[in-house]
Predict the structure of Pimeloyl-ACP methyl ester carboxylesterase.
Amino acid sequence: MDLLLVAGLWLDPSVWDDVVAGLAARGHRGIAVALPGQGDGRTDATLDDQRQAVLDAVDAADRPVVVGHSAAASLAWLAADARPSAVRATVLVGGFPSADGAAYADFFPLVEGAMPFPGWAAFEGPDSADLDEAARDALAARAIPVPGAVAQGVVRLADERRYDVPVVLVCPEFSPDDARAWVASGDVPELARARDVTYVDLPTGHWPMVSAPQVLVAALADVADGL
């Protein structure tokens, strides 16, 4: 099965290399999606550019599973909205889809038109507890400032058939019970309306493709095997 792997903020497609290899060993094709502004040198990329890159990958694949990490959960959801009959399922790793009209990822201040990695103080605790100092240094060194027109882009959703696309919420730094409570309380309105949501516990931090790629591979392959 084809699994499109969409990285979250600051990361280029190479962050998925170990996951792609692991999925191949399980008989699946992992395809790391190259997002404009994340590794190609572009500083003028927009959220629409990134959305189109994911849709192009969907159109080139065979009813893929779209895996969105962190903020890119919204990109996976945008793909389900635009291609509800072509996306087999969405897998959201450590992230939740933004609602229509919300900013994509306006989390930190822009510096010269882009949102740089803010440093590890912003991610102390469960997010980064499984990363040692060397891993933190390496991840920070590869971080690419997110173009402002991506971070501050507005999510637009239009097709309610997205709610029929199965969703698997992979819960790394939070528990499935935490996630269910957030959905039930109205904090995640898009998932509250989704008709088929499965919660998967993943005992890692926020970047499992870096800290525990084979654990993530097992979770993703199990999802694919069950579809």
Q: What stands out?
A: The beta strands are 2-6, 29-32, 65-69, 89-93, 114-115, 146-147, 167-171, 197-201. The chain has one domain: 2-226. The radius of gyration is 16 Å.
